[in-house]
Amino acid sequence: TTISISGQQLLWRGWTRYGDNDYDLAVVRLSAEATTNQWVGYRNIPQLVGWMSMGFVEPFNENNEYCTAGFPGDKTSSSGHWRLYAQCKRGAVEKAKNRILKTTFDVAQGQSGSALYRARHPSMSGPDNGDHGTMFDNDIAGKVQGVASSIRLRWATYTNVFARVNSDRFFQICDYITRTTPSGVFNPCHLV
């Protein structure tokens, strides 16, 4: 079997046993809803972080506009804190393979697990991602199709690799979510 379920997490054995970056993705169930604080006037108000949906596309179209956002270790604010860094670009995915997406995105250590998703312009029809913005411009974030996994150097060229959510992984993730979601709690995979 390719997966390992341990308590509140879903991991792939290719990563846990062999350190293979093609399998460097996980699903973690949090014990409480994630929040962040936002200053509104003079008050620090807790806000729910929210979530992004995931999905797979076959065949994968490398020519679409894709985005990623995260907290890479080489991007800090003037105070020295990590800051959110987002980027979107057409053709950023150089090659889509079964388990990985090779990209030209600027990623760095500390950004592991950052989502890769298609940018959807507001005029595009079809379901969106709960109006979750791309964090880059006025586009809407599409479904997560991969997570930042590794930075590879080959022949003096960096390729940033994202572990891909393919059809097998999608159904494994949904199976895990469905089996571990308590009754009465929203299950994003309830129709799968």
What is the topological layout?
Layout: E1 3-6, E2 9-12, H1 13-16, E3 26-28, E4 35-40, E5 43-48, E6 65-70, E7 85-90, E8 93-96, E9 100-103, E10 115-120, E11 140-154, E12 157-164, H2 167-180
Antiparallel strand pairs: 1-2, 2-3, 4-5, 6-7, 6-10, 8-9, 9-12, 10-11, 11-12
Looking across the biggest beta sheet, what order are the strands in? Answer: 7-6-10-11-12-9-8
Structural class computed from helices and strand pairing: mainly beta
How many extended strands?
12
Report the biggest beta sheet as strand number plus sense, adding barrel if it closes. Answer: 7 strands, antiparallel
Summarize the model shown.
This protein is mainly β and 192 residues long.
Tell me what the structure shows.
Strand 8 and strand 9 form a beta hairpin. The protein has helices spanning 13-16, 167-180; strands spanning 3-6, 9-12, 26-28, 35-40, 43-48, 65-70, 85-90, 93-96, 100-103, 115-120, 140-154, 157-164. The relative contact order is 0.19. Helix content is 9%, strand content 38%. It starts with a strand and ends in a 12-residue tail after the last helix. The model is unreliable at 130-134 (pLDDT under 50). The chain contains 2 helices and 12 strands. It is mainly β. The strands form 3 sheets. Strands 7-6-10-11-12-9-8 form a 7-stranded antiparallel beta sheet, with no helix packed on it. The protein has a 3-stranded antiparallel beta sheet with strand order 1-2-3. The chain is globular, with a radius of gyration of 17 Å.
